C-alpha cells in the first residue's frame, strides 16, 4: 500500500492536468457548483468512499497550486494518495478564480464559499461538517493557510453562494511550501521577484510589491493570526528556491507565539515540493490526530526529501 501511495504522490504527476485515476473503492462526483454562477472556476469535485458508513466521514479539502495563475481541481493525485490508504476520509478538490480572471481577494472568497457549500451539503454526502482539513501546495498552501487563520474575518468572507449562514472555518491545515508573508518574500531566497510587474505576486495583488505593500499585507496569512486559529502542519524544503524556507520558519514562530499548535517538517535538501515515505506517514498521523481524535505522536523537525 505504501508503494502505491508514493506512486500516487510522485512529483511529476503534480504538473499534469488530466483527471487523477480513482482509488479502488471511491467514486467521483464532478463539477459541483459551489457558487451557483455556472463558472467552471467555481466548481469542486468530491471523492467519496463507496462503502456505507453509519458515521459521517471527515473531509480532506485540497487546493491546487500554480502561482494563482494556473492549475486545476483535476490535479488531485496527492489528495487521492492521502485518502485512499484504508482511511475513513472523503476528499474534495476545488477550483478557484485565477489571476487572469480576477485578483485578490477573489481567490480566498472562492475557497471560503466552497467550504461553506461543503458544510451546507454535508448531510447529502455523509460528511462531518465539524471535521474538515484543508491541504494545499504552493499557492494552494497560501490559500489553506488563509482558511486556517481568517475564520470570521468579514472582508475575506465575500458574499458568494447561497450559504452565507455557514462557517468557513476549517479544523486543521496542512500547508505545503506556501507563502506566509509577502512583505518578507523578496531577497536572495527565491527565483520570483516580487517587484516584477509581470510576476505571479504582482498579478495577485495588482502590481509590484514596492507599490502595493498594503495589499501584500492583507494577502499574507501571517497578518491574521489569533489564538483561536486552526492547528497547522507546515511542510517546507530547506532548499526551496521558489518560496523561501524562511516563509515556513516565520509562520511557525508566529503560530508558536500565539500558542497555536504548529508542527514544522523540514525537508532536508528539499526543493519546492518533495515527497518521501516518512513525510507521508507524518501527514497521515496529523490527520489521524485532528480528524479521528487519535493520540498519535508527530515528530517535528527534519524529514528526508526523497
How many domains, in number, for the residues? 1
CATH superfamily: Alpha/Beta hydrolase fold, catalytic domain
Indicate the CATH class: Alpha Beta
Unreliable runs, pLDDT <50, ≥5 residues?
1-17
Identify the strand order in the major beta sheet.
1-2-4-3-5-6-7-8-9
Give the mean pLDDT. 92
Give the percentage of residues in beta strands. Answer: 15-25%
The total beta strand count reads: 9
Structural class: alpha/beta
Report the CATH topology name.
Rossmann fold
Proportion of residues in helical segments: 25-40%
Largest sheet: 9 strands, mixed
Which H/E pattern describes the elements? HEEEHEHEHHEHHEHEHE
DSSP summary: helix tally: 9
Over all CA atoms, what is the radius of gyration?
18 Å
Large-scale geometry = globular
Q: Please report the distance between the alpha carbons of the first and last residues.
A: 18 Å
Q: Please give the CATH architecture.
A: 3-Layer(aba) Sandwich
Keywords: Hydrolase, Signal
Protein name: Acetyl esterase/lipase
Signal peptide: 1-15
Pfam families: BD-FAE
Describe the structure.
Pfam families: BD-FAE. One of its GO terms (molecular function) is hydrolase activity. Keywords: Hydrolase, Signal. This is Acetyl esterase/lipase. With 306 residues, the protein is of the alpha/beta class. It is 27% helix and 20% strand. The protein is built from nine helices and nine strands. A nine-stranded mixed sheet has the order 1-2-4-3-5-6-7-8-9, with helices on both faces. α9 (277-291) links the parallel β8 and β9. The model is unreliable at 1-17 (pLDDT under 50).
Amino acid at each position: 500500500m505504501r508503494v502505491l501511495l508514493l506512486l500516487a504522490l510522485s512529483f511529476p504527476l503534480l504538473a499534469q492536468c488530466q483527471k487523477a485515476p480513482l482509488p479502488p473503492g471511491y467514486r467521483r462526483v464532478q463539477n459541483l457548483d459551489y457558487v451557483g454562477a455556472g463558472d467552471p472556476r467555481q466548481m469542486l469535485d468530491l471523492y467519496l468512499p463507496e462503502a456505507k458508513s453509519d458515521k459521517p466521514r471527515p473531509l480532506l479539502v485540497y487546493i491546487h497550486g500554480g502561482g494563482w495563475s494556473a492549475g486545476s481541481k483535476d490535479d488531485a493525485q496527492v489528495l487521492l494518495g492521502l485518502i485512499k490508504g484504508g482511511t475513513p476520509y472523503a476528499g474534495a478538490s476545488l477550483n478557484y478564480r485565477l489571476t487572469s480572471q480576477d485578483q485578490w481577494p477573489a481567490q480566498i472568497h472562492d475557497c471560503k464559499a466552497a467550504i461553506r457549500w461543503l458544510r451546507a451539503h454535508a448531510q447529502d454526502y455523509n460528511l462531518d461538517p465539524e471535521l474538515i482539513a484543508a491541504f494545499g501546495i504552493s499557492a494552494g498552501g497560501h490559500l489553506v493557510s488563509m482558511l486556517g487563520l481568517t475564520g470570521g474575518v468579514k472582508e475575506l468572507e465575500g458574499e458568494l453562494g447561497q450559504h452565507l449562514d455557514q462557517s468557513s472555518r476549517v479544523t486543521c491545515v496542512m500547508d505545503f511550501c506556501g507563502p506566509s508573508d509577502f512583505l518578507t518574500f523578496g531577497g536572495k531566497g527565491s527565483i520570483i521577484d516580487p517587484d516584477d510587474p509581470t510576476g505571479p505576486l504582482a498579478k495577485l495583488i495588482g502590481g509590484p510589491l514596492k507599490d502595493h505593500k498594503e495589499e501584500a499585507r492583507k494577502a499574507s496569512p501571517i497578518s491574521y493570526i489569533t489564538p483561536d486559529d486552526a492547528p497547522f502542519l507546515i511542510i517546507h524544503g530547506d532548499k526551496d528556491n521558489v518560496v523561501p524556507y524562511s516563509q515556513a520558519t516565520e509562520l511557525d514562530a508566529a503560530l508558536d507565539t500565539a500558542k497555536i499548535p504548529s508542527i514544522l517538517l523540514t525537508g532536508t535538501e528539499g526543493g519546492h515540493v518533495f515527497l518521501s515515505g516518512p513525510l507521508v506517514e507524518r501527514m497521515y498521523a496529523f490527520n489521524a490526530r485532528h480528524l479521528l481524535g487519535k493520540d498519535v505522536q508527530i515528530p517535528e523537525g527534519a524529514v528526508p526529501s526523497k
